[in-house]
Design a protein that fits this description.
The chain is an alpha/beta fold. It folds into two domains: about 140 residues, Rossmann fold (3-Layer(aba) Sandwich); about 100 residues, Dihydrodipicolinate Reductase, domain 2 (2-Layer Sandwich), CATH 3.30.360.10. It is about 35% helix and about 25% strand. The protein contains seven helices and eleven strands. The strands form two sheets. A six-stranded parallel sheet has the order 2-1-3-4-5-11, sandwiched between helices. Strands 7-8-6-9-10 form a five-stranded mixed sheet, with helices on one face. A hairpin with a 4-residue loop joins strand 9 and strand 10. It is globular, with a radius of gyration of 19 Å.
């Protein structure tokens, strides 16, 4: 029973190392010359991990499904435009997929901390939220999937709209705006800061990734969740994996 990884970049390489350490049969695939993987050349993988690039997600998922794969983990960002089509393909193929913009368990917990902060500060006058994220220069999507998720969390508890900072002079002064600033420089694997600023004080929550091992560990947790018991066809959020993981560990310490 083999696992295939679409993508041989930093994320795919980290995931491959994590699975190899666990002695799981795994094969990492680079980008094919014509941009599309042939499903016949994939063999019959038991699980497929998407860790390539946003523009390749739809075709890679279709190839995996055509090869008979019914368990998928999608760890790539920047494919929002194809999301509806990908979800339909997964359901039609009777497959189960765990999808997240960030598979770090720490990031999942961080999101819940942001939920609480946004809700608490939403009832306090004068605090305005903002988000700053920093990734390596080569990362193309901006804001990142994680930043977009954090923005949605804050907006859901405070109201308003997301504004991605840019150089086009767009006015972000509206009281409904949530400023999301994206930095692309150097080789940072990811830093996300959620702040709440008032006239007299500032509260900041920060998550900094030092390497991609945290993402790989989360992918392993998602694989364990998918293979432990049959899952319903369709897309499942990483939160479902984290919920089960936290519940199990909290019960063990009770």
């Amino acid at each position: 029973m083999e696992t295939i990884i679409f993508g041989n970049g930093p994320l795919g390489t980290s995931i491959h190392a994590a699975l190899a350490d666990r002695e799981m049969p795994v094969r990492m695939l680079g980008r094919p010359p014509d941009g599309t993987h042939d499903s016949f050349e994939l063999g019959r993988p038991s699980l497929a991990i998407e860790a390539s690039r946003g523009g390749a997600v739809a075709s890679n998922v279709r190839a995996a499904l055509a090869a008979g794969c019914r368990r998928l983990v999608i760890a790539t960002t920047g494919w929002d435009a194809d999301r509806a089509a990908v979800e339909r393909a997964i359901v039609a193929g009777q497959a189960a997929a765990v999808v997240a913009p960030n598979f770090s368990i720490g990031a999942a917990v961080f999101g819940r901390i942001v939920d609480e902060a946004a809700e608490l500060l939403g009832v306090v006058d004068g605090f305005e939220p903002y988000i700053v994220e920093w990734h390596r220069r080569e990362k193309t999507d901006r804001p990142s999937g994680t930043a977009r998720d954090l923005a949605r969390r804050v907006i859901a508890r405070r109201g308003g709209r997301t504004h991605a900072a840019s150089d086009d002079g767009e006015d972000a002064a509206s009281p409904e705006a949530l400023e999301v600033a994206a930095v692309r420089a150097g080789s940072s694997p990811g830093m996300h800061l959620v702040g709440f600023d008032s006239a007299s004080e500032t509260i900041e929550l920060r998550l900094t990734a030092r390497d991609r091992n945290a993402y790989a560990s989360g992918v392993v947790a998602a694989i364990t969740w998918l293979t432990r018991t049959p899952r319903a066809a369709g897309v499942h959020p990483f939160d479902a994996v984290v919920d089960e993981l936290l519940t199990t560990r909290l019960a063990a310490t009770a």
